[in-house]
Amino acid sequence: MSVLEVKDLSTYYRRGSSIVKAVDGVSFRIAKGEALALVGESGSGKSTVARSLINLIGESGRIVKGEIVFEGEDLLKKSKEDMQEIRGKLITIIFQNPYTFLNPVIPVGTQIAEVIALHRKVKLREAYPEAIQKLRDVRIPQPETTAKKYPHQLSGGMRQRVMAAMAIANNPHLLIADEPTTGLDVITQDEFMTLLRNLKSKFNMSLLLITHDLAIVAETCNNVAIMYAGKVVEYGSVSTIFSEPSHPYTQLLLQSISRIDSKESKFVVATGNVPDLTNLPNGCSFHPRCPYATQLCTDKVPNLLEMENGRLVACWHPQL
After folding, report:
1. Residue 292 CB burial class (10 angstroms; 0-12, 13-18, ≥19)
2. In what order do the strands lie in the sheet with 18-31?
3. Which of 115, 218, 269, 284 is least surrounded by Cβ atoms within 10 Å, i.e. has the fewest?
4. pLDDT (tens digit per residue) in 255-294
């Protein structure tokens, strides 16, 4: 059974007199206990998908069509009050810059307790012991002492663990992690992702991981959706797509990674840039960067079609 099913989601922003098609017809599903990754370059629409799911897209943005079906109910039909109840309780998110989202003048333990008190309708002092336990769950040493500290007194890795503690405070069914290792050193990144995998297993959560780091995807996720210019261009199991990428953009992403287990010394640089979302090229948005592009690619937008091994690919000339 799917915990989340996104159907033909489109979210646009207004920039002056222009319309930014940040997310344009995106569909995917996440089963109970599954980890799905959204992967793509900056500007591909990954974070907008995450914010659309919890209705935090800002005043300049608007979900123009689609469905977000969470545990059988369309979130787009929910009231603002209903979404406030779901957000932070059933669906939670870890943002990429914890310092921005933690209150600098409130101790971190109190901030976690506030999340618990709000959604469980208990007093703050009743929620505080549970906040200490959540700090233990995210492997923060001396949680009683750390709980009394302010965000600026903690390292980047510790702040991200506090964000994780807040995210699991009410035992959510779906956790969204939006570039959770950005700004962390390599060792701290590895420690945090190990923690995230353990939390997912312990609390039986589904996970939507938004990242550009394919190594993290390979270690963490069951399925992956590759995004380009607001659309999903390839979707399937991590093992299938990583071993036999079909879309030229997926191939480009994988070829741009340096591998220590490969005898090939050549390092492929991903040339070109994600197109301006206010002025997308005709046809397939990737065709200006694609080595296999033909006139058909210039003229018509390819649909996301099912191929072998259950994968979905949006390409006129998939590489098999």
Report:
1. middle
2. 18-31, 2-15, 61-70, 73-74
3. 269
4. 877 555 555 555 556 567 788 888 899 999 999 999 999 9
CA distances from 122 to 127, 187, 272 (A): 7, 38, 53
Provide the 8-state DSSP code for 270: -
- CB neighbour list of residue 222: distance below 8 Å, 6 or more residues apart: 34, 35, 36, 237, 238
Q: Angle at Cα 173 formed by Cα 170 and Cα 178, nearest 5°?
A: 90
From the list 306, 271, 308, the residue with the least C-alpha distance to 286 is 271
User: Nearest Cα to 6, choosing from 238, 233, 208?
Assistant: 208
Residue 97: pLDDT band with limits 50, 70, 90 = confident
What digits encode the pLDDT tens for the residues 107-159?
999 999 999 999 999 999 999 999 999 999 999 999 999 999 999 999 989 99
| Alpha helix stretches (DSSP H) within the chain | 46-53, 80-86, 98-101, 108-120, 124-137, 143-146, 156-167, 186-203, 214-220, 238-243, 248-255, 295-299
pLDDT tens for residues 79-90?
999 999 999 999
**Domain locations in the chain as residue ranges:** 2-90+172-313
